[in-house]
């Protein structure tokens, strides 16, 4: 195909193309092969077949396929020839681009499934037009340029096409999400969305005028982050339907300065760590091993009082309003059927959910856990009828709690346990 500046067929070609591509547009292919250059004839055939199906009738023109492929080829060649001549065709291309970018071509209805296909196709057309127009200028701009410049230019053309497509997509989303209606609420939503766009667009303009690419990049990234943050807030608020959002959880682990047998001080530090965990938005607070007594109580673990005082501290924690609305996992020694275990006690809103004994003892080096504790050997088993001491029952009204090796299943998460030595032990 030869390109001449005075090609008389060019305006005709473009007008016809516009007719094909603009509403009532029926092209529905999402193929992206049309976006970077001239569409292949097989792509065009696929697009047209789909269009025919949608129209449920044969195309008006028997040679429409051939005409369309010729049009595209002719358009590209003719535009290239017209570059820089201020020919109305180039203006027409520009107008068409802007016209469709504001949804003015009237093709976007509010709710039909065809409208999203249409939006995507018109978006593709836009990218194709941007590329064609840009390519038409390419010859002028690249006269005497080397290959590297050409490559750079192509990349910029694609970026331009992407930007045009993003703007169009944003606006078409609005016209579908907030369709024109008489309801005040819908009008308010539409105005809010458009006002937000307008302000962001103004910010972009201001950034462009700065003419400092690194600053523009930084601020644009910040805007993206803010929007992503808002988006995840909405997703979180949407409930557990959104599994990705529902699986996000903040957990607090604490390293406390606990002292052996300092029950009052240890309790104070545990409580303040729970308050801190809640302040930071955690829904689960995990404390150190044997944090109520302190880890190194040595033969004090033979004394009944050590267990009693541990329960007293636990009672105070259970009834303290500061421990509400967070899963607390504290470490303390517990006797079950007369046997001492090094345990995790998990509670929520004043109720003991599980007492979980350690299943592997640390006895290497100067660790001597087996001297004071037994390990829980019943893997995956619990005693559901563990009797809580009277002082706990009278404080919280709960008489028994599950004792053993279990996983706690919450509505949106499961909680398993591993205490220190268990991490290093195969098969634990
Ligand atoms: N308390 C423990 O279970 C300690 C075990 C582990 N071997 C360590 O050295 O830390």
UniProtKB/TrEMBL annotation:
A GO cellular-component term linked to this record: cytoplasm
GO molecular function terms attached to this record: glutaminase activity; NAD+ synthase (glutamine-hydrolyzing) activity
Annotated PROSITE patterns: CN_HYDROLASE (PS50263)
Residues covered by the CN hydrolase domain: 249-428
Domain of life: Eukaryota
GO BP terms in the entry: NAD+ biosynthetic process
Alphabetized UniProt keyword annotations: Ligase
Protein name: Glutamine-dependent NAD(+) synthetase
Organism for this UniProt entry: Macrostomum lignano
């Amino acid at each position: 195909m030869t390109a001449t500046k005075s090609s008389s067929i060019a305006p005709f070609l473009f007008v016809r193309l516009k007719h094909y591509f603009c509403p009532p547009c029926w092209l529905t292919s999402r193929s992206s092969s049309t976006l970077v250059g001239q569409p292949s004839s097989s792509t065009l055939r696929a697009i047209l077949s789909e269009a025919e199906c949608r129209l449920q009738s044969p195309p008006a023109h028997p040679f429409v396929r051939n005409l369309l492929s010729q049009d595209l080829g002719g358009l590209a060649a003719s535009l290239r020839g017209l570059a820089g001549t201020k020919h109305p065709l180039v203006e027409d291309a520009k107008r068409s681009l802007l016209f469709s970018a504001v949804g003015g071509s009237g093709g976007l209805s509010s709710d039909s499934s065809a409208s999203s296909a249409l939006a995507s196709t018109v978006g593709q057309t836009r990218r194709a037009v941007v590329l064609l127009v840009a390519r038409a200028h390419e010859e002028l701009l690249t006269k005497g340029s080397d290959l590297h410049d050409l490559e750079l230019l192509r990349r910029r053309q694609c970026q331009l096409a992407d930007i045009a497509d993003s703007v169009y997509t944003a606006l078409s989303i609005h016209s579908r999400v907030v369709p024109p209606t008489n309801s005040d609420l819908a009008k308010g939503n539409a105005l809010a969305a458009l006002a937000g766009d307008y302000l962001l667009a103004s910010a972009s303009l201001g950034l462009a005028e700065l003419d400092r690419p690194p600053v523009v990049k930084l601020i644009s990234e910040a805007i993206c982050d803010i929007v992503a943050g808002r988006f995840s807030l909405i997703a979180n608020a949407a409930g557990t339907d959104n599994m990705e959002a529902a699986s996000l959880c903040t957990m607090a682990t604490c390293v406390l300065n606990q002292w052996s047998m300092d029950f009052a001080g240890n309790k104070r530090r545990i409580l303040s760590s729970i308050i801190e965990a809640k302040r930071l938005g955690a829904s689960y607070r995990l404390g150190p091993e044997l944090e109520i007594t302190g880890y190194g109580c040595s033969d004090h673990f033979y004394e009944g009082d050590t267990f009693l005082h541990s329960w007293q501290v636990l009672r105070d924690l259970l009834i303290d309003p500061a421990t509400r609305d967070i899963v607390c996992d504290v470490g303390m020694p517990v006797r079950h059927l007369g046997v001492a275990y090094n345990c995790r006690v998990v509670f929520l809103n004043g109720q003991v959910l599980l007492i979980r004994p350690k299943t592997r003892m640390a006895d290497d080096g100067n660790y001597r856990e087996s001297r004071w504790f037994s390990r829980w050997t019943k893997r995956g088993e619990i005693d559901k009828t563990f009797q809580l001491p009277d002082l706990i029952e009278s404080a919280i009204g709960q008489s028994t709690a599950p004792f053993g090796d279990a996983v706690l299943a919450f509505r949106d998460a499961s909680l398993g346990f591993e205490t220190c030595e268990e991490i290093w032990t195969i098969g634990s």
